[in-house]
Write a structure and sequence with these properties.
about 425 residues; alpha/beta; 2 domains; 5-stranded parallel β-sheet
Length: about 425
Amino acid sequence: MTILLKNVKRLVSNELVSCDVLIEGKQIKEIASEITSDAHNVIDGKGHLLTPGLIDVHIHLREPGGEAKETIVTGTASAARGGFTTVCAMPNTNPVPDNVEKVRSLNEKITEDAQIRVIPYAAITEDLQGETLVNIKDVAQENVFAFTDDGVGIQEAHMMYQAMLEAAKVNKPIVAHCEDNSILYGGVCHEGTVNERLDLPGIPSICESVQIARDVLLAEAANCHYHVCHVSTKESVRVIRDAKKAGIRVTAEVSPHHLILNEDDVKTDDADFKMNPPLRSKDDQEALLEGLIDGTIDMIATDHAPHTAEEKANGFLTAPFGIVGLETAFPLLYTYLVKTGKLSLQQLVDRMTRIPAEVFQLPYGQLAENELADLTLINLEDSFTIDKNEFASKGKNTPFNDWKVKGVPVLTIFEGTIVYSDDI
């Protein structure tokens, strides 16, 4: 099968350049100002932006065990609709992928059902309990992205250190949700103005940053690649910046909602604003953007976390943490960061494609001849209204419903096959 994309634009040194792109099989065959071909499928790109397929290193597909919230089928359909061609699925499922047999079973299910590329994480500890280290050497031989107990912080330093030592031996990253439970205090939102206003227990910023500070020193000692999930506080940014200056192998991600919202946006006891880490202060929000721009924070990851409407109807005290993000990430970031001049289009695209691929040594994230045809076509001009009822995801839990956006993906191609198309 050959596909010819006509009249598209690509980014070259932050400039939009018109071109045609010819796809043969799974690869990009040619990129030129004009291409004539007898391709099976000729698509008018209408002057839209063509990027490498977006990459998200932090999502939750819920399957196995949480199929009421999401499945591999619905989650990858959601990802394709959002322009993503590579996603990395967290291991807080039932059962947890914490041994070779469970990882193999999960990969078989992914092969059967996934519409795009899914690379699963494996757990650091058995059943995510923080007590018994998984056999990292054996599990690393399977198709796993990295090791993480995402959703809970590794509480014991010796456990994290042993995990890092083992992961370093097999050249796999340790990826961490950072949260010290001893100073969490049962919080459900940021400890600041929002918890006082809504009379809710707060989550102090220090419970995140203090664990990052511990872990970067452990990573230095273990010579391990250590990646920090969903950074949310200015103190965390400072610790990561200092660690990088010291030559420690630490990388980090930030989620769209932490860049676009802060605690002042939480007006009522609406659990669609409840996520972990929580929406922090305006100062934290500004520090995150500064860290993303200067490279302290390497990439953007959605932390797509679907839940049922019934669960999220319960309010902050009892509803689960998390919001969905795959279908809204690029439009929100483009509209509220790029269009407002806070971030360049090149910076945004790089942090959602090339940089995560380079950080994790993935052979993706490139729009170039002879590379895999993982591509996303994005309408930068027309305005759209986010409608959660149109999501491909089972999860409708978003604080961004009815927001006006531009930069909506209209075509997603995965390994030369169209996996999502809208009005193109």
